[in-house]
């Protein structure tokens, strides 16, 4: 389960790569817009999944320490 959550960190790297491509390469405006939308989707999904995994771990540890299961 631990390794499953770490796959989402690749989304941050892909997002950074997309931003660099947008800034460095001179594409037409529509291509830049498409890459910006792709950046938003990849970053958003990765960020939400990482936060969700961390919240689930916190909730499980809180339930475990309170004697609930």
List its traits.
single chain, 69 residues, mainly alpha, 3 helices
In short:
The protein is mainly α. It is 84% helix and 0% strand.
Task: Please tell me about this protein's structure.
- With 69 residues, this protein is an all-alpha fold.
- It has one domain.
- The chain is built from 3 helices and no strands.
- Helix 2 runs antiparallel to helix 3.
- The chain is rod-shaped.
- The two termini are 18 Å apart.
Q: What is the CA-based Rg, rounded?
A: 17 Å
**Molecular shape:** rod-shaped
The percent range for helix content is: over 70%
* Nearest-integer average pLDDT: 88
The number of helical segments is 3
How many structurally independent domains? 1
Structural class: mainly alpha
Order of helices and strands: HHH
Number of E strands: 0
For the termini, the CA-CA separation is 18 Å
Low-confidence stretches: none
* Biggest pleated sheet: none
Which range does the strand content fall in? under 5%
List the SSEs and their pairings.
Blueprint: H1 2-6, H2 9-24, H3 29-65
């Amino acid at each position: 389960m631990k390794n499953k959550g770490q796959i989402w960190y690749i989304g941050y790297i892909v997002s950074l790569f997309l931003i660099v491509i947008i800034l460095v390469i001179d594409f037409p405006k529509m291509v830049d817009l498409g890459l910006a939308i792709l950046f938003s989707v990849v970053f958003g999904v990765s960020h939400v999944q990482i936060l969700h995994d961390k919240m689930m771990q916190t909730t499980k540890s809180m339930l475990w320490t309170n004697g609930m299961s």
